[in-house]
Description:
two-stranded antiparallel ribbon; single chain; alpha+beta
Amino acid sequence: xxxxxSRGFYNSKTWQKTRNAYFKYRNGLCEECLAKxxxxxxxxxxxxxxxxxxxxNNPLYxxxxxxxxxxxxxxxxxxxxxxxxxxxxxxTFGNVNCV
Length: 99
């Protein structure tokens, strides 16, 4: 989900054109999986150097293909650290505990 400072950028025609062109250039395949010999459909054009309020208006960060990578949803979550899913339990006192 886009952060508040980046919503306008991700909704812009400039980003949509860049994203679509990059997607086609990478043949719609996840670059991370392809490097492992797997053919998985890419879903997200990921910024290797994350966009911030300071760099979002700099095309070297926001639009340059050298900072882009097409990845599947699973790889995108892994790149953002979401692959470490935590499991929780609730004890008899109603406390939430990380397992």
